[in-house]
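Subject: for your reference before the review

Hello V.,

The reviewers asked for a structural picture of the protein, and I figured it would be easier to keep everything in one thread rather than splitting it across files. Below is the amino acid sequence we used in the manuscript, unchanged from the supplementary table.
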Amino acid sequence: MAGLTLKDIRKSYGQVKVLHGIDLDIKQGEFIVFVGPSGCGKSTLLRMIAGLEDITGGEMFIDGQLVNDIPPSRRGIAMVFQSYALYPHMTVYDNMAFGMKIAKESRQEIDRRVRAAADILQLTQYLERLPKALSGGQRQRVAIGRAICRNPKVFLFDEPLSNLDAALRVATRIEIAKLNEQMPDTTMIYVTHDQVEAMTLADRIVVLNAGRVEQVGAPLDLYERPANLFVAQFIGSPAMNILPVKITATGPETALELNGNQNLRIAVETPQSEVGKPASFGVRPEDLYIAKDGEDYLFEGKVSIVEALGEVTLLYIDSGVVQEPVIAKIPGIANVQKGQTLKFNAMREKLHLFDANGATYRK
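And here is what came back from the structure prediction:
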């Protein structure tokens, strides 16, 4: 098995630049997830690792070997696509064995690897079935099994669950998590737009935006300490609320003016030079709560929409500060009516502050 190193990786299609110098070091056995909005370059980067796209600039190493000019078949890579891409006329066994037959592996070795992969993915009872007799989740597991049989250095997953319905997505995500536990030395790189997949599967998440890496870190690090406004609003659902403020005093704590409220203080240190400058104040919906009578509060507003989901209640609040509603995620069933005016507060250590360029002040 192997690690992977990307040094200043760039990709252009003619005059159009897609990736702008990606630097990344992936250790052996890590489960890395690429996330970002559509068009950010995450699938392009994955295809470049696989060798399906040429590298315009930079260097890529797999297990210490420069692979820029090495064809896909010799990189030791196995890729699972969004589409299952199974041969419809072949049984599950033959689909999983096909790559090894092409590589002229022995019959005994093919049988050993296929049955071992089927056992890991709970496909043993389906080996003689055709793909049409399988559910979507089972077909995707066959595609994963086909990749396992190749015994690759690195696994690549390109949004493998996006074609499945919600229940199958959860079940197959759990299977991939189990697979990762059963193959602890195998490096896996996974592309998704689904935050739940990223947060639950990844050892580290790589957040991409417009062909650049915004932040790399453990899931909870990105959630609790986003490096900038983009990451703060991309990680978490619903997204972090962002409100414009002015810095009125600095030091170990920073004083802010928010919509006329000059008593707001945040446990973030800022330099003296920031006094009087505009900034962005961030608070996650799940960190907001309804303030009690007489308690300090961050802001008040009128509730425009109430979404009672049972486990939580989402309140959409007209704050009078920004055009889009501020969202509060209240645990359980909240006794709140549409049109009600409420005051909201949050624990000060849960608050975030970003400068005029969107970078966090929190160290």
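For the response letter, the relevant points are probably these. The domain at 241-354 is CATH 2.40.50.140 (OB fold (Dihydrolipoamide Acetyltransferase, E2P)). The radius of gyration is 25 Å.

Happy to draft the paragraph if you're swamped.

O.
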